[in-house]
Automatic annotation (TrEMBL):
Organism the protein comes from: Pocillopora damicornis
Gene3D superfamilies tied to this protein: 3.30.420.40, 3.40.367.20
Protein name (database record): hexokinase
GO biological process annotation, one example: intracellular glucose homeostasis
Functional pathway: Carbohydrate degradation; glycolysis; D-glyceraldehyde 3-phosphate and glycerone phosphate from D-glucose: step 1/4; Carbohydrate metabolism; hexose metabolism
Domain of life: Eukaryota
GO cellular component, one term: mitochondrion
GO molecular function ontology, one term from the record: fructokinase activity
Catalysis: reaction(s): a D-hexose + ATP = a D-hexose 6-phosphate + ADP + H(+); D-mannose + ATP = D-mannose 6-phosphate + ADP + H(+); D-fructose + ATP = D-fructose 6-phosphate + ADP + H(+); D-glucose + ATP = D-glucose 6-phosphate + ADP + H(+)
One Pfam family from the record: Hexokinase_2
Family named by the database record: Belongs to the hexokinase family.
Lineage: Eukaryota, Metazoa, Cnidaria, Anthozoa, Hexacorallia
Record function comment: Catalyzes the phosphorylation of various hexoses to hexose 6-phosphate.
Domain Hexokinase C-terminal: 235-465, 709-940
Length: 947
């Protein structure tokens, strides 16, 4: 079979790779040159923030000539405080601001909000009609809603969210300054939109059922909606068809304020920041593509900030850039379809679909645009890079706006309420914003809170407050309703109660807080265990719980492998059987996911491996592979002592596996014997045993030679990395070239010697005590998906016992061990209401038990546990980087926790920047890495054996 010691020698691959890259990089460089126009450095963002704050101040000035210098109107909303939770009754809301509008009925009772809503379309001809046509259509839709919901017998207060620049004269009147977002309806600018709506309601016979009591901008409504549940909210942000922001400003900073200055001495300011830049203040940062979008718009020269951010324009920006690349023959071989050439044919939804990196969605976009036939894999990559460049710039600009508000108010620890289709539906936008905020305001702690139907609900809440205050104090004028002493006192009392509760919750969650110093100390301790684990001294190795196992893999594939190969990936709640076909450096795979229940995981060796062999046999027959010799790579994600590439002895079970008769046995031999018993031992040969981390690393390294480590964040956690043989004293193999070997750290056992006791909590101790292997895999139990959900549940139960959550009452299911899976942590952290509702339903918690405040606390618990896990994982990665000295590198990552948790990657990246600011570490998601990597190693082994 030949010597496998140097089988990963890659000189031919390096030469082939160099030639391929040389050809590809020319085109890539030209694409980069085009997309470089969208790159905004941190210095540019700081400049934008300075200009924006300057325009904020001018817009608030009492000097009319100074206000005229600012394109940002900074409009007082006459809203001066937030709801206090005592509002009750039924209210209506009208939300107008995009291609659709909504009518909502909102019922408030016992601090809860129930909503019924209808969405009505707004055709383009209505958006460019006249005042009577538009408002009569809206009134007609309100009439339909009133009849459907049987409201006609009583008059309900209505809050009107009107998402355009308005000069408000009071809470019930406002003059439209100008249309935006593609609207150009005649006879509305400089008119009172509340009056126009009221007149239309009379004309359509609805006025007896509806009383318009408040005019609200969508940003203010969004802010009020979230503030109803979270008193730390200080600003509202819209990222949808258009963009805008509002925030709470001290009256001392509003010289132009002409109302009273009694308590509360504050008012929400509607910035109307979409017009930022209309005075040319940052033209040097706009591109030729921005200029073309502006030129072709309905309002050239206006709303320039909005045209670089909002959903109405992002798709068209991407299309124009793609057309430029096609003209340069850098995309679609220079041929775009007629549909692609059509203005506004590339919807912002398409940007989100492309950025999702889900192939079926991308294929649907290409088909919709008529370019599916001429699109290569390289074209898809270019299209993804265009969408990313445009989206990242938009998110960085939006983040610069939020940072400007934080700097102006000095409120660096705060929550921003966000609504809008772009923020909700673009899969990366929130992450792009959060990463930018951590770069340009590193001292801040800003949470972006998704508002659920915020603009509509917020308007109704303001209407509710108005009605409530009317009943409290008949003498209070509508314009000054928020100055009422009774209301201010209620708000103060409400906040006092809320903050006392929040402080107690913070005390509990503070146990999970890992400071920068604590994380750095963990890296130091882990590094020492790495060195001990690699030592030639058996006594020194015994002092390290981290085994540092050589894998006998010393090089990456060279690209010449071809044929069909099998892999089995075993290591979690399921196992995978897959085949890969390698042709001309491309890989195609087929995958099956047989179940792996607890009875199999806790059976005996023969039962266990017979089950695996049975499903391999089914796979081979199903895919008609039984007439050929099939080399198999075996990803076995447990601590194994290897003596060669094709033999490995199980050191101990982890992750809940306890099958008897396997520990201290050669698992390759056990699998090969089981294959023989199933009658396929002659054509399926296990050539390589691989840990999942090594497989993940090899899979990504096949495409990216800068990969230097592999990381698993799933049911369990582990890492491997390429180590120089001079740093592996215990290595007993040859020391010929290449003088390196991949080390499987088995870092899940870090801390089993007590080195993590100083950062473990009473909740960690309880999880460990109740586990199948107490006192073992302690690092893993603080990070991996198998334990995160249970950690969250135990913390929640402590808060319930303290009567800080769910009013001290939870379901029997919630009290049951392991009933809260890691998947629920991801769903709660997504911030998506339907996913959180699904979690509560599954946990048998009905709406009466879970208030908005409870949901916020549940989110904070999930975040605290997840952030600590991510910081610990980042500490591990940083240890590898520091030990190898490779500060610019790529880490291949696989595992359900990393893939499915919406914030985990961001938490890790922020921690890495914090503790290793000099490093440039890319976390690269592996596609089916652990299985594919094993098959790749089997492919290389088979090639070497045949030579």
């Amino acid at each position: 079979m030949g010597n496998t010691g140097n089988m990963f020698s890659a000189i031919p691959f390096a030469k082939s790779l160099f030639e391929t890259l040389s050809q590809a990089l020319t085109g890539r460089d030209e694409v980069l040159e085009v997309l470089g126009a969208f790159d905004l450095s941190n210095e540019s963002l700081q400049e934008i923030m300075s200009l924006l704050i300057g325009d904020f101040q001018k817009g608030l000035s009492a000097d009319e000539s100074e206000r005229a210098e600012s394109p940002i109107k900074m409009l007082p909303t006459y809203v001066r405080a937030i709801p206090d939770g005592s509002e009750e009754g039924d209210f209506l809301a009208l939300d107008l601001g995009g291609t659709n509008f909504r009518v909502l009925k909102i019922s408030l009772e016992d601090g809860k909000v129930n909503m019924e809503s209808e969405i009505y379309p707004l055709a383009q001809n209505l958006m460019t009609s006249d005042a009577n046509t538009l408002f009569d259509y809206i009134a007609g839709c309100i009439l339909l809603f009133v009849k459907k919901n049987k409201i006609s017998e009583k008059s309900l207060p209505l809050g009107f969210t009107f998402s355009f620049p308005v000069k408000q004269l009071s809470l019930t009147s406002g003059l439209l300054i100008r249309w935006t977002k593609g609207f150009s309806v005649d006879g509305v600018e400089n008119e009172d939109v509340v009056k126009l709506l009221h007149e239309a309601l009379i004309r359509n016979g609805v006025s007896a059922s509806v009383d318009v009591v408040a005019l609200v901008n969508d940003t203010t409504g969004t802010m009020m909606s979230c503030a109803f549940e979270n008193p730390s909210v200080s600003a509202g942000l819209i990222l949808g068809t258009g963009t805008n922001a509002c925030y709470m400003e001290n009256l001392d900073n509003v010289p132009k304020w002409d109302g009273d200055r009694d308590e509360p001495r504050q008012v929400i300011i509607n910035t109307e920041w979409g017009a930022f830049g209309d005075n040319g203040s940052w033209n040097h940062l706009r591109t030729k593509y921005d200029e073309q979008v502006d030129k072709d718009s309905l309002n050239p020269g206006m709303q320039l900030f909005e045209k670089m951010i909002s959903g109405m324009y992002l798709g068209e920006l991407c299309r124009i850039v793609c057309m430029d690349l096609a003209d340069k023959k850098l995309l679609f071989k220079g041929q775009a379809s007629d549909k692609f050439k059509t203005k506004n044919s590339f919807l912002t939804k398409f940007v989100s679909d492309v950025e999702s990196h889900q192939r079926h969605k991308i294929d649907e976009v290409l088909k919709e645009l008529g370019v599916e036939k001429q699109t290569s894999e390289s074209d898809i990559e270019v299209l993804q890079r265009v969408c990313a460049a445009v989206s990242i710039r938009a998110a960085r600009l939006a983040a610069a706006g939020i940072a400007s508000i934080a700097k102006k108010t000095g409120n660096y620890t705060t929550t921003i309420a966000v609504d809008g289709s772009l923020f909700k539906k673009h899969p990366q936008f929130k992450r792009y914003m959060q990463e930018t905020l951590s770069e340009i305001l590193p001292q801040s702690n800003i949470t972006l809170m998704l508002s659920e139907d915020g603009s509509g609900k917020g308007a109704a809440l303001i209407a509710a407050i108005l009605v409530d205050l009317k009943s409290l104090a008949e003498s209070v004028k509508v314009e000054n309703m928020f100055a009422a002493t009774s209301f201010a006192q209620l708000v103060c009392e409400s906040l006092t109660r809320a903050f006392t509760k929040r402080d107690e919750v913070s005390d509990v969650l503070g146990a999970f807080d890992l400071s920068r110093e604590a994380v750095l100390e963990i890296t130091n301790r882990l590094w020492k265990d790495f060195d001990r684990g690699l030592s030639a001294d058996e006594n020194e190795r015994a002092n390290s719980p981290v085994k540092m196992l050589p894998t006998y893999v010393r090089k990456i594939p060279d690209g010449s492998e071809s044929g069909n190969f099998l892999a089995v990936d075993l290591g979690g709640t399921k196992f995978r059987v897959l085949s890969i076909s390698i042709q001309n450096g491309e890989i195609k795979d087929k995958i099956e996911f047989p179940p792996l229940d607890q009875t199999i995981k806790t059976s005996d060796a023969e039962t266990f491996f017979n089950y695996i062999a049975h499903h391999i046999s089914l796979f081979v027959k199903k895919h008609e592979l039984n007439d050929q010799l099939l080399p198999l790579g075996f990803t076995f994600s447990f601590p194994v002592k290897q003596s060669s590439l094709s033999s490995g002895f199980l050191i101990r079970w982890t992750k809940g596996f306890t099958a008897s008769g396997v520990v201290n046995e050669d698992v390759v031999k056990l699998l090969q014997e089981a294959l023989g018993r199933k009658g396929i031992g002659s054509n399926v040969e296990v050539l390589a045993i691989v840990n999942d981390t090594t497989g993940t690393m090899m899979s990504c390294a096949f495409k990216n030679p800068s990969v230097s480590a592999g990381l698993i964040l799933g049911t369990g956690t582990n890492a491997c990395y390429m180590e120089h043989l001079d740093n592996v004293p215990k290595w007993d193999g040859d020391r010929d070239e290449p003088r390196q070997v991949i080390i499987n750290t088995e870092w899940g056992a870090f801390g089993d010697n007590g080195s993590l006791n100083h950062v473990r909590t009473k909740y960690d101790e309880q999880v460990d005590k109740n586990s199948l292997n107490p006192g073992m895999q302690l690092f893993e139990k603080m990070i991996s998906g198998m334990y995160l959900g249970e950690l969250v549940r135990i913390v929640c139960m402590d808060l319930v016992d303290k009567k800080l959550l769910f009013k001290g009452q939870v379901s029997e299911k919630f009290r049951t061990k392991d009933s809260f899976p890691a998947e629920f942590v991801s769903w709660v952290e997504s911030g998506e209401k339907h996913q959180i509702d699904e979690v509560l339903r599954d946990m048998k918690m009905d709406n009466e038990q879970a208030t908005g405040s409870d949901i916020e606390i549940l989110q904070r618990v999930c975040a605290a546990v997840s952030i600590r896990a991510a910081r610990l994982a980042a500490a591990g990665v940083a240890t590898i980087v520091k030990k190898t000295g490779k500060y610019t590198t790529t880490i291949a990552v696989d595992g359900s926790l990393f893939k499915n948790h919406p914030q985990f990657k961001r938490y890790m990246q922020e921690t890495l920047r914090e503790i290793l600011p000099q490093a440039n570490i890319t976390l690269m998601l592996s596609k089916d890495g652990s299985g594919r990597g094993a098959a790749l190693i089997a492919a290389v082994a088979q090639r070497m054996y045949s030579t």
